[in-house]
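Table 4 source record.
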Amino acid sequence: MVRPASDNTRKILSPRHFHLWKWARAALLFIVFCTITPEAAALSLDLDSIASWGKFPRFCVNVYRWGDHFFNDFDSTYVESTGKRWNIKTKTDSWSDSYDFRFDNRYRMEMVSDPSTSLGFYLSYMAVSVGYDVNISKYLTGSDKVRSRFNFQFNCALFSAEINMLSNDVGTTIRRMGMPGEVEKVKLDFSGINNKALAVDLYYFFNHRHYSQGAVFNYSKIQRKSSGSMYAGFSYMTEAYHFDFSSLPEADSEIPSNWDHNYRVSSKTYALKFGYAYNWVFHPGWCLGVSESPIVGVRKGNINHPGERSTTFSLNNRFRLGIVYNLKKRWFFGLSGNVTTGLINDPEHTLIANTMSGEASIGFRFDLW
């Protein structure tokens, strides 16, 4: 079961990072346990032992091995498996959203939300994870505001699939306002916001035998030698933004008069995603990973004119940076950051919307048999 990762989530039972054929292996073991005969007394979870239980277990093992080879084939000179099924880790995660308006008269208004931060502990067996998260934002910033975010990752050596959703209907903070050369730093609470966004990505790694995205960002593999890969795929996004500026009389004269103090966007975007990622193994056990991907497509919907649907050019970008240290394949220590940027533009304004997130993890891999 996958649940949104919101700031007020207290208990989570979710596979945060899915490994395609590890999930298949977990399903295989469940099916086999349901079909073995009572005579199979001394059980072993080694694949060869499972195959010896009978025709159907042998068939399942053969299917798993074929799929694992097809979707997770890699060159062991560059990438290697962790060799462990279990891991326990503690993780802290923090994220924020920002909105930078530039109006046609060059007036600027920048909004940045306080970070939403959680601290959690997780126990995982292959793709299945049980964890407990605590919202610690109110202890760090004194804010009780709750925004929600959901992310899902499904990846193997060959490709990656991701779903990201966020919503903010509790408010943000205006940090800058003014004309060019006269922009002032301010701190004004702004509650007139109700934003929702969804992004679905599916992309293929061209050099998947030498490069592993999971080595840095999911801790599911270990990169042994430096390597990179081009990747390409498809992206689908929806945006539903609403800003009510009526509570800001000082900005009335700067906001386009035909907006009636409200800014609304409702759109769907269909895009192609192109990018490059590189893992730099600069010392044994250490790996620094970077990934950059422009997303270019078309946006269908309306911008501040609900009855006027149009098709416009769409430009977005995703940047990721991470570093991991693996100690003898058992201990891992990781830091990662992610910035997603979207551009909305028409003759009356430009809006640059960003989502920034960071994660720090410490974990231990092990086997029980």
